Amino acid sequence: MFKKDRISEIRPELEAIVGPDGVRTGEAEILMYSYDAGMARARPEVVITFSAADQVAPVVKLLAKSGIPFLPRLAGTNLSGGTIPLHGGAVLNMSRLKKIRQIDTGARLALVEPGVVNLELQNALAPFGFFYAPDPGSQKVSTIGGNIGENAGGPLCLKYGVTVDNVEKLEFVSPDGETHTVSYRDAGPDVMSLLVGSEGTLGIVTAAWLKILPLPAHIKTATAAFKSMDEAMNAVTRIIGCGILPRALEAMDKVSLDTVMAGRENPFPPSVEAVLLLELDGDDPVRITKDLDTCHKICAAEGCQNFRMSGDPAEREMLWQARRGVNPAMARLAPDLLVEDGVVPRPLLTAALRETREIAAKYKLTSAMIFHAGDGNMHMHIIFDRRDLQEVRRVKKAGYEMMKAYIKLGGTISGEHGIGVEKRVAMSWLYGPEELEFFRAIKRAFDPAELCNPDKILPIGGDDACGEGRTLPASGLSARASQSPAARGIIDELRVRSGRNIATAVTGLGTRLKRADLGGAQPLDLRALNAAAVIDARNLTARVEAGVRMTDFRRQLAAEGLRLDLPELEGSVGGLIASKAWPDLRDLLLGLEIVTAEGTLVELGGKTVKNVAGYDAVRLMCGSQGAYGVIIAATFALAAGQGQAAAYAKAEPGDFTPGPLQRNLKEQLDPRNLLNPWIYAGTAAAAPGQEAVK
Amino acid sequence: MNGQEQEQEHDIIVDIPAAGEAEAALPRRGFPNDVNELYPHEQAGRHLDTLLTDLGERRLYDAASQCNRCGYCENVCPTYMLTGRETLSSRGRNQFVRLLVEGRAKDPEAAREALNTCMLCGACTSSCYAKVPTPDIVLEGRRALNGYGDNFFARAAINTLLNAPAIFGFWLKLAYLVKKTGLPRLAAKMGLYDFLGMPGLADAEGAVDKVPLRFAAETLRADEELRAVHGKPVNWAYFVPCGPNLIYTEVSEATVRVLKARFGPGVFVDNACCGLMANNYGRLEEAREFARKNIVRFEELRAAHGDFKVIADCSSCAAFMKSYEQLFTADAEWRTRAKAFADAVCDILEFLPPEKAGVSDPEALKKAGKVTYHDSCRACHGQGIRQEPREVLRKLAGKAYRELPESDWCCGGAGAYAFTEPELSAKVLDRKLRNIASVQADTVIVGGTSCLSQINAGLKTAYPSARAVHYSVFVDELTRKK
User: Fold this and answer.
1) How confident is the model at residue B19 (pLDDT cuts 50, 70, 90)?
2) Is residue A180 in some structural domain?
3) Residue A208 three-state SS
């Protein structure tokens, strides 16, 4: 009763903004917005449909004022229950905001509204000879807004990066109803990247400036069929390891192959257990042919039975249709589908696949595997019928076990589908309490009243009861043991200073911080954090301590035949990240270990190239200038072989004046303003939330 | 958030049964859903027993449950594309029927808007990997709505058409006369055109002068060459659908000429209405009766003439006759007979192979200007006919042929849709007209008579230099020997 009333109370005001047709509370609308492509269900109280982007802010403001929860929704195709209104309230239907406002091939940007369907954008760009790289399997129906919310990937993201790498700027409405425009190039902490993949829990995107790229002049596609998945995976690791970066490198197992090939002519011999779909692109046909030849040789050496190059566009289209069709084709076999989305370091794919299959077999489930092999991102498709409650239970258990297996292998639980509500419980297996608290602080900074898509991503009280508690090695305290003595020293020092309320000036190597007046803060020198980088050549990642000079780090990589795709930059690793000396550095940064103002070690990100579990705090730290935490180590994605260092255009952002969003974050992450206090001088504890409330 | 706030029930993986429902009461896999909860048992005759889906014979509940909500159909659903409302989407309609069957949606009336706005175009099914038969599911849902198919006019008209077609014809001619005598509004008010699924005609500016006073069936019956004579070998049998019979007689004339010229001797079926209108108006029992009449007639002809294809020149009609078996799944005897009939049905769009297209007259081709092809929903989605007519048209029109963007976007005619949902229908049509204009077409070829009237009505106001022409008429015009 009370719930109905709270909508009727503001109904006239809502209708004044979006028109009477835009506000619907009928039973039909409530039912139809109580589901999405996942399994969770909950009823909203009202569905608000916008017909113009500028209606969003006033509606959000009104809802926030009335304490009514809300969440944005577009095509409703997400696979993790992200668009389910767990606390009722309002579903904000953005799907009519579907204008492509501008395509600027000169600046290589497209300005679009959130409801633009991914494929429609591709079709609009093609006549200009351009494309937008993220191409999730659902691109025919999923929207840019949804892609941003989930940080969608797709086959092409191996070479071109996931959604966050392809967004230049965002306009969004924060949960208090204010409109902001943020770019990852802005001086200061990277709020834009934090928004991407936040599943509508931090704000609502109303416009996006997307990076667009010229279509490559040449594309060559090949398929390689193997008798075993292990052989196929070995080939993948070797192809990436020799410095070839395919446009896409996808794998399918026999079940998925049989499913999508049903009714078509199957070009592969019956003994085939795994097929790789390999695609190279570029403007130099000679180079592509040479690389494809190398791939052929590698595959043959790994036992490939059948390597077909297809120059025929129709055949290429057929192969891609088959690849994209796996997910929906499973619908023919059973009416419900659970898609696991785990990512593991590439060399561990074989092990992860084996475990995944064993778990599926143990629970007697029918499952098919397709995956972005080049990224180590696996999509295990388990089919079932939700009307069979026994089976649902088995599926649930199997899903949990699979996620635990990925975590154990050093991977993550979601590479591109998001956490939503369905994988929420697994967050406390993946992260320790320190990391979860860090994420919660971020959420509080944006949405203190918990109104914006509440109870998503982060585990809530009841979640522990669902699982068996945390059984996996935690990060946090035990992870501390893996730190070098110097790093442990820094942690202890910060803890002591926090206890005594002593402010700290993070000086690093002193390359950038030339300030004479430290506002009474005690300097913290990170020179001692200089242990040699730990390089995982097979996975193409390296962990390096923050005090190491970039030039030294590169020298060490070069000795192993590896490189960082960055221009020559001066200073320490930590300093470069904290100052955002090169904004695109974010693309190579996989993980960060930071120490908070309280002296708590927090491990963000990891060793996998894709990770959408939790907020993108790694990128948030880019440009944070030491004020949100002290970076003590970083993990980078490497490239193999020779490459050309990009020319170093001066890209260092200018002076940083914190805006309300950054201030709110500071208040949550360092409420006593202990780290580099001059940056946020006069705000923090002295005047809590002034900016935000105003 | 405190506890009371969370009165909303939710679970991580599986949803909670509606209040009061015990878990055990939920149907499980392997349980035939014996009691279809959509309607009381005594109403069974008014519903389909099972649906013949791409994945086999299914109960309504299982057919609807096959949808895994992937959402790939949303982008082809005209009503979703125009409104952005899940409630008016193919996925939503399926879910609604499922929720109704499961008893989670309590009030079927809430589903009325969702179900009634469906144009039954079937684009969703085409895009669906599991080929969930949404139009059939929607029709079943509609049949469960109170009063659906029970209004006086639908009942009276269908009964007359079924039991006394001559009276129906008389009545229709009367309406035409009313229209001819300058009272088109009155004719429109009588709702006849809407009932016939051609509301475009009701438009005062519509084809006022084109209404026939001699129906095609009468002309065909008089045609010696088409008479059924025992033992006469025939290569085809012409089935005249209501559109070409009662309104667009020139279509049936053209079809017969095209058939005669290319396929030799044939016969006129002298059929009843295919039953589609009764089916779509919720009168399933009458639809079966129409079907039985046609099946019996077909069997008589078979006995007299041996094997032949039944050619129809309205795609809606052909598609429906191809699905006759579904009407009789609970009746073993009629089911077999219906299947034999359905297997013989052939749309004129698919019957003509390109090598028999003929040679086009340059004069007529010039007159046709730029030619494009609109995929009538019941041809492309209903029967999977896409390539066959295009091959013929490319051959006949050559360089003058161009592809229509979004050629399988519904025109909004969709039976009585334009009448019941004028606003949506207009928007759907608008997009079709814009696409036609974008290729600067002069002649738009269609396979359904509903499309013919809808698109022509639209073109008349928005783009008068172009006209929609039925496929048969176009082929005939281009290749007729002078």
Assistant:
1) very low
2) yes
3) strand
pLDDT at B23 > cutoff 60: no
CB A466 within 8 A of CB B12: yes
Pairing of strands B309-312, B345-347: parallel
* Residue of A1, A33, A387 to mutate when probing chain B, most B C-beta within 10 A: A387
Q: Give the domain-ending residue among B126, B143, B160.
A: B143
Rounded to an integer, what distance in angstroms lies between the CA atom of residue A124 and that of residue A113? 14
CB pairs below 8 Å between A and B: how many?
Answer: 163
Q: B156-176 pLDDT, tens per residue?
A: 666 666 776 766 666 666 666
Residue A30 C-alpha, separation from nearest chain B C-alpha, in angstroms: 9
| Beta-carbon contacts of residue A548 (< 8 Å; ≥ 6 apart) | A529, A530, A531, A533, A572, A573
Inter-chain touch B130–A332, beta carbons under 8 Å:
yes
Could you tell me if residue A300 is inside a domain? no
Put simply, the answer to whether B70 touches A425 (Cβ < 8 Å) is no
CB contact under 8 A, A325 and B129: yes
Question: Is the pLDDT confidence value at B193 over 90?
Answer: no
pLDDT value of position A693: 33
Select from B117, B143, B169 the last residue of a domain. B143
* B30–A141 CB contact, under 8 Å: no
In this structure, the dihedral spanned by the alpha carbons of residues A54, A60, A65 and A70, taken in order and rounded to 10 degrees, is: 170
pLDDT at residue B177 in the model: 59
The CATH number linked to B57 is: 1.10.1060.10
Q: Please give the distance of CA A486 from its chain centroid, rounded to a whole number.
A: 31
Question: Do A635 and A509 share a structural domain?
Answer: yes
- Residue B239's H or E segment, with its range, is strand B236-239
Give pLDDT tens digits for B86-119: 999 999 999 999 998 888 888 888 898 899 889 8
The whole-number pLDDT of residue B482 equals: 58
Give domain status of residue B340, yes or no. no
Predicted local confidence at residue B105, as pLDDT: 85
The nearest CA of chain B is from the CA of A202 a distance in Å of 17
**Chain A residues touching residue B76 (CB < 8 angstroms):** none
A424·B12 Cβ contact <8 A: yes
Stretch B398-427: mean pLDDT: 82
CA distance A254 to chain B (A): 19
Q: Which of A159, A179, A214 is the last residue of a domain?
A: A214
Q: Identify the CATH number of the domain in which residue B372 sits.
A: 3.40.50
Rounded mean pLDDT, B330-357: 96
Please give the Cα distance from B251 to B245 (Å, whole number). Answer: 8
CA A164, A170, A173, A175 dihedral sign is positive
State the total domains in chain B.
2
As a whole number of Å, the end-to-end CA separation of chain A is: 33
A641 and A548 assigned to the same domain: yes
Q: How many structural domains is chain A composed of?
A: 3
In a domain, B289, yes or no: no
CATH code for the domain in which residue A31 is found: 3.30.43.10
Is there a contact between B411 and B404 (Cβ–Cβ < 8 Å)?
Answer: no
Domain limits for position A79: 2-93
Query: Is residue A585 a part of any domain in this protein?
Result: yes
A-chain CB neighbours of B70 within 8 Å are 37, 77, 138, 327-328, 331, 337
Coil, helix or strand for B159?
helix
**Structural domain ending residue among the three candidates A93, A118, A149:** A93
Q: Which domain holds residue B460?
A: 357-479
The reply to whether A513 and A558 lie within a common domain is yes
Interface pTM, i.e. ipTM: 0.88
pLDDT means per 10 residues, chain A with 694 residues, are 75 96 94 90 95 97 97 92 93 96 96 96 96 92 95 91 95 97 94 96 97 94 91 91 90 85 75 91 92 94 88 77 76 86 91 93 90 89 89 93 93 91 91 93 96 93 54 51 89 94 86 68 90 91 94 93 87 92 90 94 88 92 94 93 59 78 96 92 48 34
Best A31, A46, A424 residue to mutate vs chain B (most B CBs within 10 Å): A31
Structure tokens at A72: 């944005």
| Domain co-membership, A66 together with A104 | no
Distance from the A382 Cα atom to the nearest Cα atom in chain B, whole angstroms: 12
CA distance B256 to chain A (A): 36
Domain membership flag for residue A648 = yes
Q: Which residues of B touch A391 (CB under 8 A)?
A: 29
